[in-house]
């Protein structure tokens, strides 16, 4: 772990972040980080609980003179998105994140940084450990599996928490105070297909799409970024229509909540079309690169000869697949009519896998309006069912309805303006925060979300601003001192 990161100010925050990033913590494999957090709380002599789904709760009494303030819940999630560049050798299950300082940014070497939501976790740890920071009674809530299902928040039972105010530390712009978020649902299409022998006089090719920015499938969905699965499908569709291209395998994307950066397909064409195919594909590639010249400067598309595969897809199923993925909506579906510049509904075609007679297409559909979320989910389901897929719609979680009359919002907005000389951006976001889910069992809890500036979350370009962390830390400390008294 880079010592230069530990030397950054505020040291309490960056040292706890470095400690946390030494612990592997992929979603659904949080055993080590749960044990780490349980040990942390117990060593401080604080009440430490591991609930039945894996969430960790640590309670700390109010500091002297703050006993009459409302109890607060400080909440962040323990898991992180695991993404790496193709040429990065790294084992997320065994290695800690390798960090370094790059100007005003902390980055990781070829992987996601884990600032989402590690900086929030580190903030709470630093406050729990401190003997000097003034604060009311705190219930620290560390949830699990936020990134791949929000099962920690969903499994948290009512009555376990006593706090009246929840501070969620999972917003990624330091001038933003979040008061609402989108819900989400997984749409997964699967079907089997027959494999055929490769025709004689065929030529094998491997098509690779890479170098895309990727990013958060909620926060970055409106930035005009390329989706590797959509781009690959466009190439395959053109090759099929013009040269009878046949697919052997496709492996595109990774996680549902990450805009796919890479896709690789193994295909064949008839040898008689070899030269014409390459020429035509280059024209298509040039068109795509021109379209994305502003947002995807590093986009690379390679078409190289390779060994012939042993089998290819049945042509009828292949045509259905290509037309369905072409039809399926990706990106912004509807902007909010109630909040300016807010994406209401979107879809990310996150994962396309074709191999050994099995097709899987994985989507994450988001919306701040439940009916719109399922409207788009049904549109996707229809596109996939029309070519014979079995479609499941699962893992639905609610959005968080904005509360513009929130008492803690007034407190925080006043502090922000005093510290920075400008008003904060009070907004709802298109990410899936846990507040909406937690609010189902704690409907009377006053909730707010904020955090330091983090860019490129869910991608290897993830980076955390050092100056923003300093601004954010000052904000946190005054918020803690300004929590209202109990009624």
Automatic annotation (TrEMBL):
Domain spans labelled Peptidase M20 dimerisation: 208-286
Database matches in InterPro entries: Peptidase_M20, Peptidase_M20_dimer, Peptidase_M20C
Protein name in UniProt: Cytosol non-specific dipeptidase
GO MF annotation: an example: metal ion binding
NCBIfam families: aa-his-dipept
EC number: 3.4.13.18
Organism: Flavobacterium limnosediminis JC2902
Annotated GO biological process: proteolysis
Cofactors required: Zn(2+); Co(2+)
Cellular component annotations (GO), alphabetically ordered: cytosol
Domain of life of the native organism: Bacteria
Pfam family, one: Peptidase_M20
Transmembrane residue ranges: none
Keyword set, alphabetical order: Cobalt, Hydrolase, Metal-binding, Metalloprotease, Protease, Zinc
The family this protein is said to belong to: Belongs to the peptidase M20C family.
Catalysed reactions listed for this entry: Hydrolysis of dipeptides, preferentially hydrophobic dipeptides including prolyl amino acids
CDD domains, alphabetized: M20_pepD
């Amino acid at each position: 772990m880079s010592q230069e990161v530990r030397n950054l100010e505020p040291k309490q925050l960056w040292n706890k972040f470095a400690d946390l990033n030494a612990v592997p913590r992929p979603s659904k494999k949080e055993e080590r980080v749960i044990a780490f957090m349980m040990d942390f709380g117990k060593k401080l002599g604080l009440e430490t609980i591991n609930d039945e789904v894996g969430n960790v709760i640590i309670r700390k009494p109010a500091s002297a003179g703050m006993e009459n303030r409302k109890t607060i819940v400080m909440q962040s999630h323990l898991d992180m998105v695991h993404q790496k560049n193709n040429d990065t050798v790294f084992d997320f299950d065994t290695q800690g994140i390798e960090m370094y300082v790059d100007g005003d940014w902390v980055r990781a070497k070829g992987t996601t940084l884990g600032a989402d939501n590690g900086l929030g976790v580190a903030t709470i740890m630093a406050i729990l450990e401190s003997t000097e920071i003034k604060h009311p009674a705190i219930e620290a809530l560390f949830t699990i599996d936020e990134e791949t299902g929000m099962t920690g928040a969903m499994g948290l039972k009512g009555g376990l928490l006593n706090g009246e105010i929840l501070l969620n530390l999972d917003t990624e712009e330091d001038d933003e105070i979040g008061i609402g978020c989108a819900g989400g649902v997984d749409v997964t299409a699967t079907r089997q297909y027959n494999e055929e022998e490769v025709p004689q006089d065929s030529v094998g090719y491997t098509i690779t799409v890479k170098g895309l920015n990727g990013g958060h499938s909620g926060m970055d969905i409106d930035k005009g970024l390329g989706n590797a699965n959509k781009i690959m499908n466009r190439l395959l569709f053109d090759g099929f229509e013009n040269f009878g291209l046949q697919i052997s395998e496709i492996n595109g994307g990774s996680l549902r909540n990450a805009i796919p950066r890479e896709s690789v397909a193994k295909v064949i064409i008839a040898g008689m079309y070899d030269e014409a195919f390459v020429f035509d594909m280059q024209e298509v590639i040039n068109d795509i690169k021109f379209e994305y010249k502003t947002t995807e400067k590093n986009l690379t598309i390679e078409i190289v000869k390779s060994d012939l595969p042993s089998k290819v897809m049945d042509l009828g199923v292949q045509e259905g697949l290509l037309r369905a993925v072409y039809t399926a909506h990706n990106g912004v579906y509807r902007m909010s009519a109630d909040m300016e510049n807010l994406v209401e509904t979107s879809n990310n075609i996150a994962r396309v896998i074709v191999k050994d007679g099995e097709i899987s297409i994985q989507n994450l559909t988001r919306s701040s309006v439940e009916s719109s979320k399922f409207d788009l989910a049904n549109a996707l389901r229809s596109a996939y069912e029309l070519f014979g897929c079995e479609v499941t719609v699962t893992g639905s979680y609610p959005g968080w309805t904005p509360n513009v009359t929130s008492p803690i919002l007034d407190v925080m907005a006043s502090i922000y303006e005093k510290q920075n000389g400008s008003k904060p951006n009070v907004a709802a976001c298109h990410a899936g925060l846990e507040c909406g889910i937690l609010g189902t069992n704690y409907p009377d809890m006053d909730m707010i979300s904020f955090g330091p500036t983090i860019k490129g979350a869910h991608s290897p370009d993830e980076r955390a601003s050092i100056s923003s962390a300093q601004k954010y830390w000052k904000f946190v400390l005054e918020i803690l001192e300004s929590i209202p008294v109990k009624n």
